[in-house]
Specification:
- The protein is α/β, with parallel strands linked by helices and 337 residues long.
- It has 2 domains: 132 residues, 2-Layer Sandwich (Nucleotidyltransferase, domain 5); 165 residues, Nucleotidyltransferase, domain 5 (2-Layer Sandwich), CATH 3.30.420.
- Helix content is 39%, strand content 19%.
- It is built from 9 helices and 10 strands.
- A 5-stranded mixed beta sheet has the order 3-2-1-4-5, with helices on both faces. It has a 5-stranded mixed beta sheet with strand order 8-7-6-9-10.
- A hairpin with a 4-residue loop joins strand 1 and strand 2.
- Helix 1 packs parallel to helix 2 and helix 7 runs parallel beside helix 8.
- It is globular and about 60 Å long.
Length: 337
């Protein structure tokens, strides 16, 4: 079954063509216009999606040796959570294409899609598992009893870890988005130089807070802190919080596997610590490559493929609308049932 998947939840335009869970072709366009504004400008993001998406679809079809949309069986797009204007571009295009081709459409939950980047691999997840989803907009822990039962354990109470990295990077002059630049700067610094507070440090509490940590970093910077040492101290504090809470839940729940997902998983120290801790505890670690840690359409396509494997006749209504936030305790890949 061929799936054309589209992701436009924020400022990356992504398209993927899949046969089942396997990628035939994929493309991602990262918008650079936001860097000079110091953050994502929603209006600019949605306008860029409108401009870029049609050409990106054409590129993917050509790469997949398809000359039309007639060979697509199912169209899938992120329905939310995300920026409403951006989401609407991908949704509207996918629904219109599905309607014109008389094919089915699936609206996909963005959070579940990040986790489903690990679906359909040769190496199977052994349940129960714990998933860490950490990105620019979300920081959450989930218990996974199966692919059909993903239960929220806890989330951030304020900023997401990725947002904290980006804003701190901007603060110390590394630009926006600066999470990757801060990671590089931290490699040359001393993580013990500046003891930073660890908000909500109790590992038994599966929730996070990063706003106070940002404030502490800001105060140190204003007092003349060294950039690399501050970056290293900040990175170490965030990674310790993420990993300690994740490992506690793994022990508490008797997990066999750990699934890591989201843009912050590209952080080099976090990847290193996850490998170390999971190896020490004999946990199977599922770590996406850096390319598929950030927003991409392959994860949307795999979430759609999983839905279709369970119910080959599944579809979302054309009335499916974008949603900015997700709330609840049970996470499903289908965003518009």
């Amino acid at each position: 079954m061929r799936i054309l998947a589209i992701e436009t939840s924020c400022d990356d335009t992504a398209v993927a063509l899949l046969e089942g869970c396997s990628a035939i072709a994929e493309r991602v366009y990262s918008q650079e216009v936001h860097s000079k504004h110091g953050g994502v400008v929603p209006e600019l993001a949605s306008r860029s999606h409108m401009k870029i998406l049609p050409g990106l679809v054409s590129d993917v079809l050509r790469a997949g040796e398809m000359d039309s949309l007639e060979g697509i069986d199912v169209f899938a797009a992120t329905a939310g959570p995300g920026l409403t204007g951006s989401l609407l571009v991908g949704l509207a295009w996918s629904k219109a294409a599905a309607w014109a081709a008389a094919k089915r459409f699936l609206g996909i939950n963005h959070l579940a899609a990040h986790i489903y980047i690990h679906y359909g691999l040769k190496r199977q997840v052994v349940f129960p598992a714990v998933a860490l989803l950490v990105s620019g907009g979300h920081t959450s822990l989930f218990r996974m009893n199966s692919w059909q039962e993903i239960l929220l354990l806890g989330s951030t109470r304020d900023d997401a870890a990725g947002e904290a990295f980006d804003k701190t990077a901007k603060l110390v002059g590394l630009g926006y988005p600066g999470g990757a630049a801060l990671d590089i700067a931290a490699d040359g610094g001393n993580p013990e130089k500046y003891p930073l507070p660890s908000p909500m440090p109790d590992p038994s509490l599966p929730e996070f807070s990063f706003s106070g940590l940002k404030t502490a970093a800001k105060q140190l910077w204003e007092k003349g802190a060294d950039r690399s040492d501050l970056a290293a101290s900040f990175r170490r504090t965030v990674v310790d919080l993420l990993v300690s809470k994740l490992m506690y839940q793994c022990e508490l729940l008797g997990a066999n596997s750990v699934l890591a997902a989201g843009g912050v998983i590209a952080n080099s120290l976090l990847r290193k610590e996850l490998r170390w801790e999971c190896s020490a505890r004999n946990l199977e670690l599922f770590l996406p490559d850096r390319e598929h840690s950030t927003d991409n359409a392959l994860m949307v396509g795999r979430a759609a493929a999983a839905i279709l494997e369970r119910n080959p006749e599944a579809f979302s209504p054309i009335s499916c609308n974008a949603f900015a936030r997700w709330s609840g305790r049970s996470l499903s890949p289908i965003g518009c049932p």
